[in-house]
Amino acid sequence: MYENIKNTSMLKSLFEQKNLMHSYLFYSADKELNNMVAMCFAKSILCEQGECCCVCDACRQFDAKSHPDLTILDQESIKVENINNIISKLSTLPISATKKVFVILNAENMNEIAQNKLLKSLEEPNDSTVFIMTTSKTDKLLKTVLSRVNKIYLQKLSLTDKELVASDLLSQGIDIRGYLEKDFSITDMMNFVRNADFLDTIEYIKYIFSNLNTTSDIPCIVSKMNLKNKEIFFSTMQDIILSTLKSDYAKYDKDLIDIVKAHFNEKVLSKIVLMLDDAYKKQMSNVNFTYILDNLLFNILKEKFYAAH
Ligand SMILES: [Zn+2]
Questions:
Q1: Which of 22, 93, 279, 301 is least surrounded by CB atoms within 10 angstroms?
Q2: Considering 132, 153, 174, which residue would you say is the last residue of a domain?
Q3: C-alpha 283 to ligand 1 mean position (Å)
């Protein structure tokens, strides 16, 4: 998670520390980065292993946004009613974790009344709660609020920083230079190198999106699958679709994103994202890969057909 951030060691010790502070504010110009780090931090607090293990019950509940000790505010306009709702939860003890975690994403969306209301809770910390906020616009937050929270500035690795890491890795025989220009984290890049199948996977996904038109295409597409590492297939496909939905060209080539866009509308793509979650789960429980793929392609076509009629 924090591998593509400059102040990694600070974050690492923050994530590992046992004595949590009462409130944190992650800030930088990069909204997505702030929110990603904040969510990961919140998850690590609630995780039964204390580390975002992603497999314990708490992590699963977190991913499903159903953890009983988690409250997330993530909206365009945060009003005093929303803060009152948080305050009403402050007096009760956590249900399954040791802390109750309140996450306020893009805290600049709080109006002044809401901020003032929140300030009272920040001024009178409660041992069993942690507030985690993010902002890309610190000037939109009241000085009084800013002075009450632990501010953590996040800085993404620059290309030069990545080049330094790359030359270091090269001396260890790992060559990530081919990925540097794109927006992958160092860990992602190392995984791609270790897993030479990554580019084949992308090529194959591109082939699927270009050639999946009728159900009679399915057997042919399935028979052309000869990837060595199938573990990354569904998550890569999902990542490509999410990048397409955001028109984000940072990771994948423009022509791949354009192909996906040309063949499927947004509504269908959002449905496919969910199907891929399901496919990945099946894969993890050892269902035959070809069977999952075959099913997935059929369901994608079905969605496409419904969307068109
Ligand atoms: Zn966990």
A1: 93
A2: 153
A3: 20
One domain, residues 44 and 131 = yes
Residue recorded with tokens 């009403």: 88
Reported pTM:
0.62
Look at residue 125 in the predicted model and tell me its pLDDT.
80
The answer as to whether 177 is a domain residue is no
Q: Which of 123-132, 170-179, 262-271 is predicted with the least confidence, judged by mean pLDDT?
A: 170-179
> How many Å lie between the centroid of ligand 1 and the Cα of residue 45?
9
- Ligand 1 midpoint to CA 82 (Å): 28
3-class secondary structure, 246: coil
Angle at CA 288, nearest 5°, toward 266 and 223? 70
Residue 178 CB contacts under 8 Å (≥ 6 apart), including other chains:
none
Cα(46)–Cα(98) distance, integer angstroms: 8
Ligand 1: distance of its center to the CA of 44 in Å? 7
Last residue of a domain, one of 153, 171, 203: 153
- Residue 203 contacts residue 233 (beta carbons within 8 Å): no
The rounded distance, in Å, linking the Cα atoms of 171 and 14 is 30
Nearest C-alpha neighbor of 43 from the set 98, 126, 101, 125: 101
